[in-house]
Amino acid sequence: MAKFITPIYDRTSTDISTETSKAYFNVVDWVRIYGNAEILHSLIEYLLGIGVDFTEVESPTIYTINTSIGKINDLAENIENIRANCGLPAALGLVELFTSWTDGQSGQTPGYEDVNDWERDLSIIFANLANSVEYTVYCGVASAGQPRFYQHRWRQYAGWVPPSETPVRRPRTNNAICGSGIMRQNGFRRY
Fold first, then answer.
1. Strands (DSSP E) along 58-181, which ranges?
2. Alpha-carbon span 101 to 109, nearest angstrom
3. Per residue in 32-56, pLDDT tens?
4. b/e for 84-120, b at 16 or more Cβ within 10 A?
5. What's the pLDDT tens digit per position in 48-86?
């Protein structure tokens, strides 16, 4: 697996006006951002056990840099999917990313602030990745208070609960459920 490369998210308008190296989005920036997103995608899927949508984009070279707006939208959407599924709270500084850029003379294209947001989100997620597992709440099967007669009727017709001649205590579920009443909390009902 590739190594996570420290993101650069301190671009300013001064960099643009003085045309420093941070003023240009080049192949090195693309490879760094895409590679970091790819690493985080794999780690989040592994650690959280969830599927995260990720669009594969070919690795650019000096001659084949992805300048189409569709590829830029794919890159931003990959980062947004990672942010949305990482399980970290927005209070850490994560921001929702815009993923519908348009091309053309009057089109809306990403600027240095947007690229800063992309890389800042990746940096925050990477720094707090271990905590994202702790923020995830795992629960069992949900119980949504159906009427008793409906539950009993369904069990009778389904055929998986044998009929009884006398009232007996049968487990309703082996997973914890919430609600009021001692009979509901311990997961048993008297038929």
1. 169-171
2. 5
3. 999 999 999 999 888 888 889 999 9
4. ebbbbeeeeebeebebeeeeeeeeeebebebbbbbbb
5. 888 899 999 887 777 777 668 888 899 999 999 999 988
